[in-house]
Amino acid sequence: MPPPPNGGGGGVMDVACKHISAIRLHRKRKPYASLDAAPFAAVYVALVATALAQAHAVWPEASTPAVVAAAIAAAFTAHVLLALLCVWIPSVKAIVQYESARDVNNADAVRVKPAAFHGRETIVPLKRTPIFLGGNQGDKIYPGTDFTTDGDNQLSHTFEYRKQRFYLDTTTHTFRKLEFNFHQPPNKLVAAHGRGYGTDAKANAAKSVWGANVFDVPRPEFRQLLINQMMQPFFVFQVFCVALWLLDAYWYYALFTLVMLVFFECTVVYQRQRTSDMLRRDVGESQNSLPVSVYRGGKWAPVPRSELLPGDVISLRSIDAREQAVLGVPAVDVPADCLLLGGVAVASEAMLTGESTPQWKSPVHERVCTAKEGDDEPLRRSRDKRHILFKGTTLVKHERPGSSSSAEGGGAKVPRPPDGGCVCLVMRTGFGTSQGKLMRSMLFSHERVSANSAEAGLFILVLLGIAVVAASYVLYDWTIAPNGRSLSKVMLMVMIILTSVVPPELPMELSLAVNQSLVELIKSGIFCTEPFRIPFAGKCDTCCFDKTGTLTSESLVLHGVVATDDFVKNRLVANLSDASAQCCRVLGVCHALTDASVDQGDPLDLAGFAAVRARFVSRDRVQPCNLPRPAEGASAPCRILRRFHFASELRRMSVICRVNSPGDRGSNSGVGGDILSALGGGSDERDELWVLAKGAPETIETLLEHVPDGYVACHQAWAKKGARVIALAARRIADAEEADDVLRVPREKAETNLHLVGLAIFECPLKTDSAACLAHLANSKHQLVMITGDAPLAACHVAKQCGILSSSKTLLLDLLPSQGSTPATAESSSTAICWQALDDSQPDKATSLAYQGAAQCSQLARDNIDLCVSGAAITELERRGEANDALVHMRVLARTNPRQKALMIAALRAQGRTCLMCGDGTNDVGALRDSQVGVALLGGPSPAAVSPAGASKGGKRGQRRIKGAPPPPGEPDSGDGGGKGRRRIKGAPPPPGEPDDDDSMAVSGSHTALDTGGDGALEDDADSKSWIERIQEQQRAEEQLSLGVSLRDASLASPFTVRGSSIRPCLDIIRQGRTTLVATLQMFKILGLQCLCGAYSMSVMYIQGVRLGDSQATFSGIFSAALFFCLSQAKPLDKLSPERPHTRVFSTYILVSMVLQFAAHLSFTIYATQRALTLRPEGEEVCVAFDLEGGSEAASSSFETNVVNSVCYIVNLYTLATNFAVNYVGHPHSTPIHANRPMLFAVLAMMATATLLSVGESPVNELLEVSASLPGTLGTELVAFAAADFAFCWCVENALRKLPSS
């Protein structure tokens, strides 16, 4: 039996979306049945009738006019409050204006409840719209509908939530996101939609379903935005406070506060409008009018990008410089998420993944052909992204489909496009695309809380409790001794006391620090899409980094190859002219480059391609070697027939090519040339088919027909020296095989029975500032972790270079070695993993230690042993359920896949760590998103950054360089010995003509910008003046560039994106995070002290008849706002301190400091008040702060200057200045108060004003309504007691700051 139409009881429906927890069905009430209309209308009628009866004396016994007026005012207030609650709280609106609907056919709205931390509830209309579109009659994309059919369209219940449409699947009675059904096997998808829309009628029907391919970001009107802002709960509360002050005759103060609030809201509205304009400008909407060739109705025709529809077959092409000038665009963005059917494309996906290297995209038929027989696995974005072009990414280069009359595409039978572009199938448009997901994350920020939101709310509740006590005291005193005080005035004071807990400027105060940090980050080239994460950066205690492209340079250098017959001797051939033809062939042919993008691609491919001087003869033909005197056959052109692209899970790539040359059997002149006989050489035919492969040595080892002697020891020895080792392999395909069979052979079959031809040794040097930045983080007590996909030994070597591994002993947790020593205990013989000690003195040997569980990892870490783990060992730890407990102790994770990188972040967070993850590639996306502070490096110009402490002040970078480091661009190498300035792997032979000096060539940890001893000693540059000038010019240009950071620099990869490749911005993010965190806690602390002092002054002193004048309150409010603003402008210090900032509001430091400081302020206030009462002139009355019932004695909140009031105000100024001066936290996280000049001057000005009011007559006294002169020595006593109060608070604060932040 099918489930009920509502999918459950009470109008609750299921929804297939992880960001929505539930939805409820509702029906709009009739106007007369709405709970905010009829009940209040009846009340108003009754009250008006009562008022009229009173006026006409119909009911003499009726209430007095004052009571009737109060009742009308109360009813109106309740009506307004209920209307505002309907705006603020959707659940209240659902009760008041809607009723539950048990069936979708009776509902006209749904209440959407998002998942935790994904926004707030909202009510959206439920509509009936055309949803289901059929390609052929009866062939529907979406099954399960029994609604009215209109041709090829069907009507369904839909609603739109955050720019996404949801439809009702009647088979499961579940709402689902409306999206093109590409979750099916690619061959079926291409067969069904490979010819696009056959008729214009079908295209028009599809347009009614999918809408336009645009980001509909309307520019809101200023007036409407301002009204919305003013209806927010906090603004209404602020206006209510202003009304209370007006009732208490604080006209100037109330108007000043109201103007300040409105001004602040106007600036917020203006900023929202600017953000909207930037979004509209930067999401590529300017290219919507550019035409795209679309295949509709059996022909190619130009169609605007905004009219593209899911299911369209389109042609995409890159543009050259001339076309860029004509069109006025720097490059062409992909207009939608598209499945590549024919041709090849190279796209930059930095916006999507943070990967700065352009990505190769191949047609989907390659995926279909390589699938196992009978494999009907649906298309998945994560697995098949190699065949998908994503909207917003930049199309760098393209290749047209093959020479056949129809485009390649595994069933897509369409003519070749006339513009020569790639043939693609549109999958998603508009907000449904990957770029649309980024847009929605910006438009609907799902987590606006700060790092201290929960504690902040609890802190305000505590302050509210204190205010309740103070207000209760006022009421209690009135009930015991009314003394003729009016109830209205007492209730007014009670409400003022209660509302004073949250000052009106609180939202401004708390947002100032975050906004200031955002501005500073943007100036440094750092873009933040989630500002609430900035305080988390201040809490960060663990920093994780990718290796290749993040810590090390993206530009690799091929240092040489090791031939198979040299493995035992471990002899490197640096001159590739002496290498075998097959080694050169693999390097020159096995890559993902194209003839149009030989300068853009994977750094490994570029390095190998450049090392053998390969070149493209035509689109798919490569001359693999153009070196002087190469091995025979190495220069023979090769035609690339198929590419099996690199995958992080497989750690290899391969190609099938046709070699246009005689058999290579005689090519034995090169080193290792005798290997050709083993590869099947010997044919005299001119065309031979070869499989060429390269990849990680461990991976290629499993594909070899025979593993040469010394293979494992050789590649491990080079990995221990920090080299990136790539195994090169090849296999000749039997001559009997037909070319058609070769084009259909699965990857698994093609990459079997390979023969090793050598090892390629690549040099991957550290970036110039990586070691310095990591040393800075290590000195500030941050735990450093490397998470990489590289080999464990190479990763450990680089980790030692840059300081991640600092212990003298390192253990690697890996699978049991197939060769070498075995663990000492019998227990470990049945264990799949064990510890391997990496001994630098004997790099070819390792001792094993049994793995005994996660507790052993903790003990080893406490013994100051650096722990590392391989991806294979992580898999075993997951199987045992020990991954979370063991991984938190690891310093290096090597040979990891993207899922394992994210697993490490999850393990750290489960242990309560606050993690920063920095990466630059697609493999890091999961870890970047899961960490609290994810930093994606987009490449390009490096941001202007502050040097760590210890660097010379004159030139942040470039004035002096490391001995042995490569010279700056364009500058000749001035190193000793001709070539000593070039960094080279320890143990590698020198290039021709260069003396062999291992020590001078060693890549060691001393190559840091901050080291001043040994081989890393700093030396003056020969041409320092010109180089300094160039650096300064570059920094000025970069500063101008960083100011132009736009929303296009945002990335789905992480909340922080950096335009640059240096990890130095991580330091900037942590600095700004600490400054923001410290400033926020300062504000709460000062707020608490002001609340405590205010609770006393507005209760006890109010009862005594003391009140502040209007001018006095206004002056204090102006100074307080100015001080809060100056406090938020504190700059972070360049050096990160090992002392962590306090992160909790409810900490011993903050609570004890507040109590002791309040005790000092309270003593000061009581002493000064009592002295003023004692010394006041005879006959002077204390100002009456309340109304007396009965006429002439009523002061009616009037104010008259007197000694007691003047003294209380002077004390208030002193304590306010003391609170800001003493509780300002400068060193060690931000600039001290003497460096924050505006803050210093504001505090001094307030103290000077208070002192001037205390000791002498001045125009300020009259302006602030303070007595011209205080009696006796009262003024001097106030100054002395203020100094003592300041000294006591300063001593208490500085003593308590030394308490640990934990």
UniProtKB/TrEMBL annotation:
<dbReference type="GO" id="GO:0005524">
    <property type="term" value="F:ATP binding"/>
</dbReference>
<dbReference type="InterPro" id="IPR044492">
    <property type="entry name" value="P_typ_ATPase_HD_dom"/>
</dbReference>
<feature type="transmembrane region" description="Helical">
    <location>
        <begin position="65"/>
        <end position="89"/>
    </location>
</feature>
<keyword id="KW-0812">Transmembrane</keyword>
<dbReference type="GO" id="GO:0005789">
    <property type="term" value="C:endoplasmic reticulum membrane"/>
</dbReference>
<dbReference type="GO" id="GO:0006874">
    <property type="term" value="P:intracellular calcium ion homeostasis"/>
</dbReference>
<dbReference type="InterPro" id="IPR023214">
    <property type="entry name" value="HAD_sf"/>
</dbReference>
<keyword id="KW-1278">Translocase</keyword>
<dbReference type="GO" id="GO:0046872">
    <property type="term" value="F:metal ion binding"/>
</dbReference>
<feature type="transmembrane region" description="Helical">
    <location>
        <begin position="37"/>
        <end position="59"/>
    </location>
</feature>
<dbReference type="GO" id="GO:0019829">
    <property type="term" value="F:ATPase-coupled monoatomic cation transmembrane transporter activity"/>
</dbReference>
<keyword id="KW-0479">Metal-binding</keyword>
<feature type="transmembrane region" description="Helical">
    <location>
        <begin position="251"/>
        <end position="270"/>
    </location>
</feature>
<dbReference type="InterPro" id="IPR036412">
    <property type="entry name" value="HAD-like_sf"/>
</dbReference>
<feature type="region of interest" description="Disordered">
    <location>
        <begin position="939"/>
        <end position="1021"/>
    </location>
</feature>
<dbReference type="InterPro" id="IPR006544">
    <property type="entry name" value="P-type_TPase_V"/>
</dbReference>
<dbReference type="GO" id="GO:0015662">
    <property type="term" value="F:P-type ion transporter activity"/>
</dbReference>
<feature type="compositionally biased region" description="Low complexity">
    <location>
        <begin position="939"/>
        <end position="951"/>
    </location>
</feature>
<feature type="transmembrane region" description="Helical">
    <location>
        <begin position="456"/>
        <end position="475"/>
    </location>
</feature>
<feature type="compositionally biased region" description="Basic residues">
    <location>
        <begin position="954"/>
        <end position="963"/>
    </location>
</feature>
<dbReference type="InterPro" id="IPR023299">
    <property type="entry name" value="ATPase_P-typ_cyto_dom_N"/>
</dbReference>
<dbReference type="InterPro" id="IPR018303">
    <property type="entry name" value="ATPase_P-typ_P_site"/>
</dbReference>
<feature type="transmembrane region" description="Helical">
    <location>
        <begin position="225"/>
        <end position="245"/>
    </location>
</feature>
<dbReference type="InterPro" id="IPR008250">
    <property type="entry name" value="ATPase_P-typ_transduc_dom_A_sf"/>
</dbReference>
<keyword id="KW-0460">Magnesium</keyword>
<keyword id="KW-1133">Transmembrane helix</keyword>
<keyword id="KW-0067">ATP-binding</keyword>
<dbReference type="Pfam" id="PF00122">
    <property type="entry name" value="E1-E2_ATPase"/>
</dbReference>
<feature type="domain" description="P-type ATPase A">
    <location>
        <begin position="291"/>
        <end position="440"/>
    </location>
</feature>
<dbReference type="InterPro" id="IPR023298">
    <property type="entry name" value="ATPase_P-typ_TM_dom_sf"/>
</dbReference>
<keyword id="KW-0472">Membrane</keyword>
<protein>
    <recommendedName>
        <fullName>P-type ATPase A domain-containing protein</fullName>
    </recommendedName>
</protein>
<keyword id="KW-0547">Nucleotide-binding</keyword>
<dbReference type="InterPro" id="IPR059000">
    <property type="entry name" value="ATPase_P-type_domA"/>
</dbReference>
